[in-house]
Amino acid sequence: MLYANYVFYSNNFADKVGKPKPGDTVVVSGAAGATGSTVGQIAKIKGARVIGIAGSEEKCNWLVNDLGFDIALNYRDPEFASKLAKATPQYIDIYFDNVGGDILDHCLKRIAKNGRIVLCGAISQYNEKQPKGPAFYTALITQRAKMEGFIIFDYAQKFPIAIKDMAKWLQEGKIKRKEYIIDGLENAPNGLLKLFNGYNTGKMLVKVNDENVKSKL
């Protein structure tokens, strides 16, 4: 299945790690990407209030108008920190982190008592010579919060369930998806750079051929 990888991340976020419930405030960074957009929609299905963080107004509009996020914030906005605080008056019950760095720190400052931080990725740090660790980790102590990372292979036995749930939600129109297609294998390296720069919206794919290729085996 084409979306198996991030379906797996997203579904286990709902049932195993984050465990969103009705009324929770869930914040998702990298929200306009393949994983983040799916996580936010699953959180809505679970009855949570969802705030997405993305890198452009266009992406933020897509999250709210097309995917049904309650709020979307542009982290490039100079007033991002104050807008995040205003959007989370009851603080953050679950933060799903795809980016690390400064945004993780901003969300640590807003984490609720017994809050959960789910570590899925740190795309803002992968190319840094000296990755930045969280500066406000003491919030985990004062708020009795939990920070946990996870890898898809930890839940391999649940893979068929994740696919079944996603297929049902797609059919019901509860989950929407978007593809960003790179045309030609020769353009794949530039596509990878765009991925790390946050250029794409939705799932990035490389289109290698327009024709139906028959196997010679």
- How many distinct helices? 8
Spatial strand arrangement across the major sheet: 3-2-1-4-5-6
Helix fraction by DSSP (H/I, runs of at least 4)? 25-40%
- Main beta sheet: strand number and arrangement? 6 strands, parallel
End-to-end separation: 22 Å
Oligomer category: single chain
Q: How many strand elements?
A: 8
Strand content: 15-25%
Which structural category fits the helices and strands? alpha/beta
- Radius of gyration in whole Å, from Cα? 18 Å
Question: What is the H-and-E element order?
Answer: HEHEHEHEHEHEHEHE
Global shape? globular
List low-confidence stretches: 1-5
Mean pLDDT: 84
Keywords: Oxidoreductase
Protein name: Alcohol dehydrogenase-like C-terminal domain-containing protein
InterPro entries: ADH-like_C, GroES-like_sf, MDR_fam, NAD(P)-bd_dom_sf
GO molecular function: oxidoreductase activity, acting on the CH-CH group of donors, NAD or NADP as acceptor
